[in-house]
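Bench notes, bay 3.
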Amino acid sequence: MYVPVLEHTSHIKPVLSAFEAFSHVQIYEDATVSFTYGGLIFTSQRAVEAFASALDHLSSIADSGSKSERLIMQCLEHLTIPLYAVGPATALSLNHVMERFLPRCRISGGEAAGTGEILAEVILEDYNASYAESITGEMTETEVIRVKKPLLFLTGAKHRDIIPVTLTSAPSEQRIDVQEVTVYTSNEAPYFASSLATALSVTASAPVRWVVVFSPTGVDRLLSTLGWRVDRHMTGIGPDDPKWVLRESLPDNSNWVVRHTFIASIGPTTRDFMKKKLDFEVDVCAERPSPEGVWQGIEDYMRTRRGLP
């Protein structure tokens, strides 16, 4: 069962603003165009969706006869910049957009970069390598840094800063400037609480039940609904209480008969949030942020609990 936690609202104006300069440029003889940014960064499908909405908007205006928007769309067709994506799902969504609007661009990261930390390292290596041919022996360090264009990071209102911090704090010869623009906002869906309660009620009798969380948002409500948000120092709550036994690491897996609900996270961001903010350790954290990665983690966990190789 799938329980939507968030409602997302796209904001296309920041994307449109980034491409406004194209309405005043010409396409060069070698069919390339100059762009303010050297590449784009995406860490979620929501950001890709907002980006696609902006391009759809530009395309519809261009089709209606607007010369400036038509020129922007022509420039996008000739744009050759890297598109950096976290995880396979974001890369797949981005690939659909690229095929429609940015056929000469390339996607880097994807499945090989399942977290922001990994993608930041990918960007440092890939983006700096792309500028190596532009550097001559006569250039000073300041001139080398100035050659690099900044990257445009399309993100939500709430996000980790690991990528911009890593890129902007790298050694001077590798440092990359990043401009962040908020292209969507997320809020808890008004029907989330009731939908969650219904889903947990329907599955309450299952011999084994896994709850997979994809975002830090809503996890506190999840634990409360499960009855797991308890204070071990509260009167009447102790190691013999079934709610607390569920979270205890007992010898010989003796809590196997008591416990039938387990928690898996799509990746380290949600796992770390639950540990740091809620003092709660998930049972499984997917090594790859994908349905296949989650399933593999669950299979491995269940085999271990049952004593299977």
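Next record in the batch:
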Amino acid sequence: MAQESMSKSMSMQSRVGRDNQRWGSNGERLVAGVVPLSSNKEHVLIIQTRRGGWVLPKGGWELDEPTAAAAACREAWEEAGIICQVTRNLGFIQDPRTPSQLQKLAGLAPKALYQFFECSVKEQRDDWPEKSKRSRQWVRYSQAREAMRDRPELLEALDRSSIKK
């Protein structure tokens, strides 16, 4: 697999909206994300959501991005302020939300198909596009599992990674 990374032009603007979003054949939103590991694989970088929960960096794969890995690296930059290099494709993970859960969201969060990538962090910057919206923290496996306990798709990605458990 080709090593994907993001280090060329680093925009300080986050992409917003879904006009440029890729969609799967079943109408699901294609979402790319990373499991950013420390060099010794003892820690993972998680980010705080706007609602206060903790997640892995992830977001929509857009039409102008050649690969899901490129989209995942862009999301890692925008949301966590890291320049990363994909080291492993962790595969696809189905959205675990039920139709009734999706209906409660009134179309604000359509069904998604996640593709996660393990990555190494080449650089962590002090300023990044979503710094004012998000915190980030390096945590051990058990701490990450606890912080993301309500997000089975993120736990699945974490478990597929080579983080030391």
